[in-house]
Design a protein that fits this description.
Homotrimer. This protein has five helices and 13 strands. By secondary structure, it is α/β, with parallel strands linked by helices. It has a domain of about 120 residues: Ribonuclease E inhibitor RraA/RraA-like (Glucose Oxidase, domain 1, 3-Layer(bba) Sandwich), CATH 3.50.30. The two termini are about 30 Å apart. It binds oxaloacetate ion. The site of oxaloacetate ion has 9 residues, from α4.
């Protein structure tokens, strides 16, 4: 039986993030959980809280993770998306901020052009129609019209937390 849900799981041993939408052609995340109860218990398989909305053309996407931790600013988001994505997934820990957007249409277009598979934002995005036109997958908490700061403390390639789930660079 194939069942589908909209959760995100991170598999340490396979060094991959698995992000599924309502439908994923080759992988049912519920089935992955059912056959990996041991990995769920020991933390090798992690499921993020199901709080993300689905944006972008790719409802399902996967790839090695690049991590970024920011505080209401996105200078490093642009810097990272200007590098070749090669199918990677950028995970932005914005601390769940509802104060501004961390990603908009221009950056989503850049991500598409540079070959990123997707972006997960623990925070907000804007320019939803433009993002939905891009051939990438995007998960975010909500849309917000305000732009982010251009100066902020940020750290790249560090372990980040979404809820109580840790996500590491390269998983
Ligand atoms: O430029 C920004 O900081 C965010 C944005 O609106 C875009 O990517 O279009």
């Amino acid at each position: 039986m194939r069942t589908y849900d909209s959760q995100l799981a991170s598999l340490t041993r396979r060094s991959h993030a698995i992000i599924s939408g309502d439908y994923m052609a080759s992988l049912a995340t519920a089935d992955v959980c059912d056959v990996n109860t041991g990995h769920l218990s020991n933390g090798d398989l992690r499921v993020l809280p199901p709080v993300f909305k689905i944006y972008g053309q790719r409802r399902a996407f996967s790839g090695p993770i690049t991590t970024l931790k920011v505080f209401d600013g996105n200078v490093l988001v642009r810097e990272i998306l200007e590098t070749r994505g090669e199918g990677r997934v950028l995970v932005i820990d914005g601390g769940g901020s509802m104060r501004c957007a961390l990603l908009g249409g221009n950056l989503a277009q850049l991500a598409q052009n540079m070959g990123w598979a997707g972006i997960v934002v623990n925070g907000c995005i804007r320019d939803v129609d433009e993002i939905n036109g891009c051939d990438i997958g995007v998960r975010a908490l909500a849309s917000h019209p305000r732009k982010p700061n251009k100066k902020c403390q940020s750290e790249k390639h560090v372990p980040v937390y979404i809820g109580d789930m840790m996500i590491r660079e390269g998983e």
